[in-house]
Amino acid sequence: MAYCPNCGDELKGEFNFCPSCGFNLQNIGEIKHSPGVSSTETEVVICDNCGGENPAGTEVCESCGIKLSSEVAKIITKEIPAKSYPEKKRSQLKVVKEKTLKEEKATAKVVKEIDSKRILGIAAAVIGGGFLILFVAGVFDKPVSSNVSTNVTQDQSSGVDLSALQRINELEEKVKNNPGNKESLLELAHLRNDSGMFDKAIGDYQKYLEFVPDDADARVDMGVCYYSLRRYDEAIKEMTKALEYKPDHQIAHLNLGIVNLAASNVEKSKEWLRKAVDLNPNSEIGKRAQELLNSH
Predict the structure, then answer these.
(1) Angstrom distances, CA of residue 212 to CA of 45, 172, 182, 200, 290
(2) pLDDT at 90
(3) Burial profile 210-248: b = 16 or more Cβ within 10 angstroms, e = fewer
């Protein structure tokens, strides 16, 4: 077995870098393959008085303090036990949990976080640090969002946990057997949206909206998928269309402010954010819109 010379963890395979601590294994020579005993030759000067061993070049014995003779140093061989490393506990990666938010006359709304650095790369005047929040207006017939927010050991880029994937497979089968099942279509779209499968989620939303074209919440959710794919024009189009069916949709107004900001339409963004505040300045969404207005 091979062990990392830095952290002592077992190396199960050939690695250029230690998978536990990231130590560079490429230029360290031969890696020890088992914790045992090694030997080394060392020059020492033996004290005539006490017999103590002193490093070559030492003038006074380190053990008794007597001056050492200037005789030629003696070469001895010492056995050095290999260092024993305690096993490290590895921390698990956690998927970011999504929060839920309630606003007046609406059911629980799923909240999505947008890294502000992404916005900074597109628009010049954006918040320094922190996060912008893009709200999703999707309404679940069942509390399926809890499936997606479970902590799992995986890369966040995949965004899918096992329970969500299992539910997605079940819904796919339902929709395959009954393409007109609106409830299953909408739930499937929401799950894929939350799991990062934005292209497939868009397809599901489109099929659902053929049956229920006036569902403003679902149309805003589809716009969020377009936003996540950086297809800003299509996101703006769908969110604006949602307002034709529900003109006072505060989340749609806030999201239009954020999407326009991402698309470098700063003045247009401010217009939408002001409208979001005007609809209800005391709601969480209204307060969020005001914060964004104050920041740029």
Answers:
(1) 93, 19, 8, 18, 32
(2) 30
(3) eeeeebbbbbbbbbbbbbbeebbebbbebbebbbeebee
The sign one gets for the Cα dihedral 109, 112, 116, 120 is: negative
Cα distance from N-terminal residue to C-terminal residue, the chain: 58
What domains can you pick out in the chain, each with its CATH number?
A: 1-34 (no CATH), 38-83 (no CATH), 100-295 (1.25.40.10)
CA angle at 209 for the pair 208 and 213, rounded to the nearest 5°: 145
- The tens digit of pLDDT for each residue in 230-258 reads 999 999 999 999 999 999 999 999 999 99
The model's pTM: 0.51
225 vs 83: CA distance, rounded Å: 53
* 134-165: pLDDT as tens digits: 555 543 333 333 333 323 223 333 445 788 89
Instruction: Outline where the chain has alpha helix (H).
Output: 116-120, 145-148, 162-177, 182-194, 198-211, 216-228, 232-245, 250-262, 266-279, 284-295
Report the pLDDT averaged over residues 191-204.
Answer: 95
Q: Are 98 and 133 in contact (CB under 8 A)?
A: no
Contact 111, 131 (CB under 8 A): no
| Confidence at residue 188, expressed as pLDDT on a 0 to 100 scale | 96
